[in-house]
């Protein structure tokens, strides 16, 4: 842990002069954070908690910014702020066009026409109804390939995250675009699980050799698949309506055909928010039910409630990024650091979900947790009760994928645990 703190002390020192961290500092931070995840049995919330404790809950890894809120009340006030500011950045590393088009919804501040029209556009085109109807029976689908055969040989039966993702991706793509991908198309998009995770750290992606072109290849393949889909046609038609003038202008400013910009934004959100989040959630469901018969029984009894509580304690998306509107002075790792207005900030929904003010025995998974508590959890970027009600007043930027992601996770988790 000392290495961790020393590393952050030196980062804080360089922040005093307004410098961004050096490559060496970033590499050390990645190594230490990775070690924390491994030491915490791959439970990213525990790793994130350990990280936050060791840095006094203030610094953001890899870049220049701070964690502004972990307490429930602070986080809820921020994520439900009708005017939450955003800019083209992720974590504390800026944005990168290797991962996203800057016109994408997550970079638009709440309360602006660009944000509210983007949300309505996606709702009207697909998102308000994409969860309806049954999912196809997965039959006897199971993972194939030499890696699985080797794992079987050594008795490692638990499906891997990639194997879970291989089942999630084709179902998700069909729901989003209204078009079935070929096995090859689905496999290519599933490659985002290997190359796209680094997009969580924004501009970091640019500093890793070969990665930007690998991410670009997946994004291009996704757009090529989706360009002539029913959802792409709907997006283009809706964009002609006066009610979407601000988004149309935003897309036109990108200097590419408007269809491609519209498809790119939804494709990026599908992979970044959808593929990564839903695969993580489903993998956790498989892992916990595989390890503990009590979990399996509780999942089979009430799959939705099981997934909610799992996500309260082990959130798939740890927090949200914003930007400070005021300058701030902080004492960090022995240094006085000045952060000007415009510095990246993050809010931790995963730590807020464990705040004893809101949740009794907050770190325990209690699958009988009353709705008076469960309805307050924040893992889909708003109080669960507001997310489910699609209440834009209560949760101005709630995750529009909640219903579909829970349905997909329950379906695939049930399939992968059917023989237990
Ligand atoms: C079907 C799969 C999913 C889709 C299509 C999806 C889509 C989206 C979109 C478009 C946003 C941006 C909302 C905005 O900025 O206004 C978003 C945000 C978010 N989603 Fe999802 N999502 C999915 C799955 C998940 C899962 C499984 C989780 C976690 C359990 C999750 C948690 C979140 C959170 C915390 C945010 C806020 C992120 C931020 O503001 O930086 N999502 N989602």
Structure, explained:
By secondary structure, the protein is mainly alpha-helical. The chain has one domain (2-416): Cytochrome p450 (Orthogonal Bundle). 52% of the residues lie in helices and 6% in strands. The chain has 19 helices and five strands. It has helices at residues 2-16, 23-39, 44-54, 72-79, 113-127, 146-153, 161-177, 183-190, 192-195, 211-226, 230-238, 245-252, 258-291, 293-301, 303-313, 349-352, 371-374, 384-388, 402-416; strands spanning 66-69, 319-323, 328-332, 335-339, 344-348. A hairpin with a 2-residue loop joins strand 3 (328-332) and strand 4 (335-339). Helix 7 (161-177) crosses helix 13, helix 11 (230-238) packs across helix 13 and helix 13 packs across helix 14 (293-301). The structure holds protoporphyrin IX containing FE. Protoporphyrin IX containing FE is lined by residues 105-106, 119, 172, 269-270, 273-274, 277-278, 281, 311, 316-317, 320-321, 349, 379-381, 397, 399-401, 404-405.
Topology:
Elements: H1 2-16, H2 23-39, H3 44-54, E1 66-69, H4 72-79, H5 113-127, H6 146-153, H7 161-177, H8 183-190, H9 192-195, H10 211-226, H11 230-238, H12 245-252, H13 258-291, H14 293-301, H15 303-313, E2 319-323, E3 328-332, E4 335-339, E5 344-348, H16 349-352, H17 371-374, H18 384-388, H19 402-416
Parallel strand pairs: 1-5
Antiparallel strand pairs: 2-5, 3-4
Helix pairs in contact: 1-2, 2-3, 5-11, 5-12, 7-8, 7-13, 7-19, 8-10, 10-13, 11-13, 13-14, 13-19, 14-15, 15-19
The protein binds protoporphyrin IX containing FE.
């Amino acid at each position: 842990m000392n290495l961790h703190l020393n590393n952050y002390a030196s980062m804080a020192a360089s922040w005093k002069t307004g410098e961004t961290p050096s490559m060496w500092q970033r590499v050390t931070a990645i190594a230490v954070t990775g070690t924390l995840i491994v030491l915490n049995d791959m439970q990213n919330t525990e790793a994130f908690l350990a990280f936050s404790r060791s840095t006094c809950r203030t610094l953001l890894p890899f870049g220049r910014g701070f964690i502004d809120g972990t307490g429930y009340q602070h986080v809820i006030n921020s994520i439900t702020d009708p005017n939450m500011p955003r800019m083209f950045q992720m974590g504390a590393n800026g944005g990168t066009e290797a991962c996203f088009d800057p016109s994408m919804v997550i970079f638009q501040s709440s309360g602006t026409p660009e944000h509210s029209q983007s949300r309505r556009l996606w709702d009207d085109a697909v998102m308000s109804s994409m969860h309806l109807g049954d999912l196809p029976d997965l039959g006897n689908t199971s993972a194939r390939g030499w890696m699985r055969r080797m794992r079987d040989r050594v008795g490692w039966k638990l499906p891997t995250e990639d194997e879970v993702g291989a089942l999630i991706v084709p179902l998700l793509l069909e729901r989003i675009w209204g078009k079935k991908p070929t096995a090859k198309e689905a496999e290519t998009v599933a490659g985002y699980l290997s190359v796209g995770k680094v997009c969580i750290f924004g501009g970091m992606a640019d500093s890793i050799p070969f990665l930007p072109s690998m991410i670009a290849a997946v994004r291009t393949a996704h757009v090529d698949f989706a360009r002539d889909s029913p959802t792409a046609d709907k997006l283009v038609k809706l964009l002609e309506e006066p009610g979407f003038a601000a988004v149309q202008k935003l897309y036109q400013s990108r200097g590419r055909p408007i269809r491609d910009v519209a498809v790119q934004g939804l494709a990026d959100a599908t992979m970044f928010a959808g593929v990564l989040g839903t695969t993580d959630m489903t993998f956790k469901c498989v892992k916990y039910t595989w390890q503990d018969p009590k979990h399996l029984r509780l999942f089979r009894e009430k799959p939705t409630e099981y997934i909610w509580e799992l996500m309260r304690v082990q959130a798939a998306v740890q927090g949200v990024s914003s930007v400070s509107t005021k300058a701030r002075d902080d004492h960090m790792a022995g240094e006085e650091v000045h952060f000007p207005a415009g510095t990246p900030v993050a809010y931790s929904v995963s730590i807020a979900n464990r705040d004893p003010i809101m949740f009794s025995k907050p770190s325990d998974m209690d699958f009988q947790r009353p709705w008076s508590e469960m309805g307050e959890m924040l893992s889909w970027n708003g109080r669960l009760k507001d997310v489910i009600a699609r209440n834009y007043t209560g949760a101005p930027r709630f995750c529009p994928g909640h219903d579909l992601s829970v349905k997909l996770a329950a379906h695939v988790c049930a399939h992968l645990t059917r023989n237990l």
